[in-house]
Amino acid sequence: MSIESFTLLPSFTDDIFANRFNQIDKVFSTLTGSKPLSDVPPYDIVQLTNTHHQLVVSVPGFDENELEILVQNNQLKINGKKFSNPQILKNNKFIHQGIRCRNFSLNFNLSRHIKVKNACLVTGLLKIDFEQQSPETDKTEKIFINTLQKNKSTIAK
């Protein structure tokens, strides 16, 4: 029996830079110890059972209506678009602003047998549940043999 492994290979993009630039920037930032230019929200992938997994994305400050989850062509797309509130920015002077609520886009390649079941937003964590379905081609199907009497045929004349 062949079991296809759970595949969530991340590829990241944001509103300003292309994916390749973000990857190169991350490599150089790791080597030099400086902070990368792109801020992709941290995430965890948790295996709940053999067939159930959960993606947990940290999205502090985002409301449900500012997040969009799409599945298209075996690709999971999570978009966060923060609606700016000019009144808060105008009335408040930040001494330190450590919570970044920037627009983001996360893309994950899904195996064709991985299905997104549901999503919920709880205390700044976006939780997306997945289920690994067994492929139809791997299921055993029994084919019954019809017995025909000599004089009877099912072929149309």
From TrEMBL:
Keyword NAD among record annotations: no
Coiled-coil ranges (or none): none
Ranges of residues in domain SHSP: 34-148
Keywords per UniProt: Plasmid, Stress response
PROSITE patterns, alphabetized: SHSP
Database matches in Pfam families: HSP20
Family named by the database record: Belongs to the small heat shock protein (HSP20) family.
Protein's recorded name: 16 kDa heat shock protein A
